[in-house]
């Protein structure tokens, strides 16, 4: 089926072949606008605050695992009821993202980010005074899930698309890496606070962090460079603020209906679902218990997971840099093949001690962990044009579905088989499947398997840029 989208925010003036001097210099202000400070474009300040906001929101994702024992001890709630709240949080997180992208297009990035941070602060504050397990589901599952989901990868993609023409892949990589980095940076500190002060001070700490970021967002973040009288970073011509369309929710659903009729949506979404299954669904959920099965101390296993988070930031930044220069499809193939080989080898590497082999594993896996995001974001942009950020929100929802499915599969397999060996091998096979899917993603302008699929003009422009850059 054919599917055509009308772009509202094309990339005028982009030039993949620009010289480094031109890329690094602050572009001239548009007519009637003011010139940015010499050498520093406002876009970098916006990206910095957006990254700090993502780090703060991501810290909440590290909390559910730390809350299980304290809440079970204090309230005598079942671990199942506590886990249900965490599951609701994950589902809401995944489903709200595409609507958040449309709402940002409709009402602006700053307003939606402030609303999301407010929901997070209110949800965290109410969690400290809850008395029933259903309240945990409401406060942590719904409020915090909706808030953090609004400040996830679609937020990063929207900021990068609005504020950057050049270095867009690099910025997307840095911002998406900030999510995993935030979880791992906060995890040791939150664990120490809970161990020494209790779980309530840990949540209050996170609430204060989110409140602080709300102030910075209000002061620094702007929806579009035109609001500050500027051009996007790297743009050679004036870029007006995109036309605002009413009905953000309807647009989100309309974009989904159009996207599901395009085969490339399912190819991109299917590969990204495997990404979720082989990262969030298996490593973040089952690595620690699998290591404990082999006699490794829980503190050592948790430290190894933290190393993955730290190196994931470097991996996404590097991936963003590579995405600006190479075919994103080939990058995805390399990432999934590498991840699959690592997961296939993991049963032989796990043991009671953290030897050199397992340290190498976590470092390399960290580099590949979130590296799939920049190429996937760029492919959504190229295939679906101005709707790319919303489409990526739905693709990210499939990522969460994959993660949830693998988390359930891993636990069931551990109960039935008495070990995680089949889980790692299944995950490795899925990575091979994802690599094959990545090869099936047609370039913009190509018609896969004789099907009739049209590109938005925005996507066609990206295709021309690719040919110029020799991708």
3D architecture notes:
The protein is mainly α. The chain has 2 domains: 20-27 and 37-245, MFS general substrate transporter like domains (Growth Hormone, Chain: A), CATH 1.20.1250.20; 247-445, MFS general substrate transporter like domains (Growth Hormone, Chain: A, Up-down Bundle), CATH 1.20.1250.20. It is 72% helix and 0% strand. The chain is globular and about 60 Å long. The two termini are 27 Å apart. Pfam families: MFS_1. Residues 1-34, 446-471 are annotated as: Disordered. It comes from Nocardiopsis terrae. It is found in: Cell membrane. Residues 45-446 form the Major facilitator superfamily (MFS) profile domain.
Task: Fill in the keyword field for this structure.
MFS; 471 residues; mainly alpha; Growth Hormone, Chain: A; disordered N terminus; disordered C terminus; 2 domains; membrane; globular; transmembrane; MFS_dom
